[in-house]
Amino acid sequence: MKKLSKIYTALIIFFMYMPIVVLILFSFNDGKTMVWKGFTLNWYTDLFKDSQIINSLWNTLMIAFLASLFATALGTMAAIGINNFKGKKRIFLQNASNIEILSPDIVTGVSLMLMFTLAGVAFNFKMGFLTVLLAHITFCTPYVVLNVLPRIRHMDYSVYEAALDLGCNQWQAFRKVVIHELMPGMFSGFLMSFTFSMDDFVITYFTRGASFQTLSIQIYTMTHQRISPKINALSALMFVVVLVLMVIINIKDRKLEKQNVQKAL
Amino acid sequence: MKLKRPSIPYIFWMVIFTLIPIVLILYSSFTDRNGNFSFEAFSKAFGYYDVFLRSLWIAFISTLICLILAYPLGYIMSRQKASVQNTLTMVIMIPMWMNFLLRIYAWVTLLQNDGPIDIMLSLLGIHTTLIGNQGAVILGMVYEYLPFMVLPLYTVMAKIDKGLIEAADDLGSNKYIIFKKIIFPLSIPGIISGITMVFVPSASTFLVAQYLGGVDDIMIGDVIDRIFWSDQNTGSAIALILMVAILVFLIILNFFGDEEAVAT
Amino acid sequence: MKKFFSAFIALAIFVSCAVVMSSCSGGYDGEINVYNWGDYISDGSDDYLDTIKTFEEEYNIKVNYTTYETNEELYNILSSSNSSYDVIIPSDYMVEKLIDEGLLQKLDYSKIPNSKDLMDNFKKPSYDPNGEYSVAYSWNVTGLVYNKTMVKNKKPDSWEYLWDKDLKGSILQFNNNRDAYAIAMQLCGITPDKFSKKDVDKATVKLKEQKPLLKKYVMDQVFLEMEKNQSAIAPYYAGDIYTMMLNNENLVGVLPKEGSNLFVDAMCVPKNASNVDGAHKFINFMTRADISAANSSYITYASPVKSAKKLLDKDLRESELVYPPDDYLKKCYTFHNVDDETYSYMQEQFVKLMS
Q1: What pLDDT was estimated at residue B259?
Q2: Using the beta-carbon criterion (under 8 Å), do C355 and B51 form an inter-chain contact?
Q3: What is the nearest CA distance from C75 to chain A, expressed in angstroms?
Q4: Which of A217, B109, C1, C47 has a Cα-to-Cα distance from B29 of 20 to 30 A?
Q5: Homologous superfamily of B48-263 in CATH?
């Protein structure tokens, strides 16, 4: 059984990473196409000279990070609240939250643009970083709600009450019990938000204003020509950074686990 | 703790950033180019009924395949040590951080004639065209959205009390009974979240079909994307119909889910 | 779990510091917002000129450079949002539409002395008949590309070959309504510079005939399809065909004998621009012979600047695909704006065709 699970996991991971390998491979291709022409590192050196791409990268990461952080907070609170509604009201709120996910991006994008434009005239502001951030929080939060809700349904409230009885104040009990319980759901919600935010093109496109650009916009608008291998190089680098980060954390976690075991002994 | 208050900020947020946009779409789909009330947009929108049906069908199949692939993986993940769980979660999500369009491109490279997969298959004596058909579109969808099925399933299954399973085991239940009576019912909320997270975006996605499909595989998301630029009214009407169709599907799903949850 | 979060937060703090630092690099005398097609400016890769950096250094004006994908996107953003762009680069028919709707402002050509160096046909082009609102950025025509090993000893020289039954399953067509319809209309005997709903209907019939023979409707995918010998024949922009041929020696580029679409992308200043002076400086800079030549050799479309042509590589300058000969250009047409209803009718028919 154990062997079978390992093989299965490996197969899925292989499926997930096959295209990534291709992507990285072609960042070393000495040509602008998907035809292999020999090895080069030029795309990497060009990448660092390209202030547009670097700038877009920062914008993308900033938006993704801030949006998913806000969305996680907002969505977790919302999920806790929604869970305490009963029956039809709860179903209504859950579906209301899903509406944002199921309206096509272009529609959300255009309608938000119209709204921001009206608001911009009324309150005298221009679209840019802030409007993009608001839009991203809007489409990320429902994913957090979706991830946290099932977790709350399984939560044992008696633990929270026990914590209160044992002298925790409400906030402590909330932090130590509820947040702790919901953490995996919040974490998945955060990851999903981050992913969707990084990938979003259409909504950002409409809400960004005149001087703000993210990576995905730069990539999508290249589709009249060819997508520059600089983008592949960038993806490869990001991949390596995340991988290294993961390995470091994993090693630390393992050490901690070992220490805990030794302490227990 | 039984408070409803924490959801208030989000309800406000939804009113401003979701409700107002929806009202704008409603308004736009019931007017014509000059802003007069009209059903023209809807009658045009229903002209795309075949694309609607095809998109829902592709989304349905993709969701089903995702569920079948993700369920065992979610279960396997939930039985690991905490550190392994975290690592696996990240491993599943990281591919999604590479840009969507780049990933689709990579699939085109993999699937094309004389591409790596084609060569491998022809070594095995299988000669077939891998790209430019509905199968390739579904493959792209499954690839694109599989992680969004795995995560909620894993999150829920990790919550299942191991003691419960051990107890059942001690009481002589076999594996099938344990699955049927404990694991499956308790994982239903995760299944529902997962289906929502895969079905909804895959029904409205665009570009995947244009890159991996053939001459007549475009989906409703592509139609909206194209029509909207030149005719906002019809675009809005199509979007509205799509939203209602998906919403109905989700409401049915939710009722089903709740009854199951009550039954256990 | 918490560690992931803290690692993330650390990363984010680092990122935000870097952003703050990079945005404080200041000291510019103002900034302009430039809005151009994606990957349509020489960007410093592969030893090409970094156009924007050069401009920033010479004029000390910061450029916020953003990109779009289609003329219709540009139009929607420009007409319904309150963002202010200083320089935009739409195509011919879109320039005409923007002029008609009063969304552009007249240029002060005394501030763009380099515009005297424009080729004569771009001084008062058909989309801007008085030459008041625009300065051409680059131009080219549509053409045909085929793979000589895959066309069964034929020598395609006409759009008709895109309807050739012998090549069934390996023909590509534009995934873009205007270009696909233009080809079909030409074969129906309609000049596609302006058209009515009736013309659209005729062309739709022609395109329906073609559909069973097609492999795919493509845009950028055409590069992969042709360069990796996946398809036999395709229409695309001639300058891009030039680069495809460099990557696959089996490919042959031709200018169809019926003539084709001469397209021009031109720099304009929207009415609500906030830095009009900077915009003029940018337009003048992009029209300077050496800059226009450098840009042209990156995007491999022709430069509208007379003395830029001399500065180009011999191969590029003498290629018929990049600079089609004058007698061929006489057979070409340039798109004009059509009314919204006809345009959206064409789009609707095109989408129905593909579904």
Answers
A1: 47
A2: yes
A3: 12
A4: A217
A5: MetI-like (1.10.3720.10)
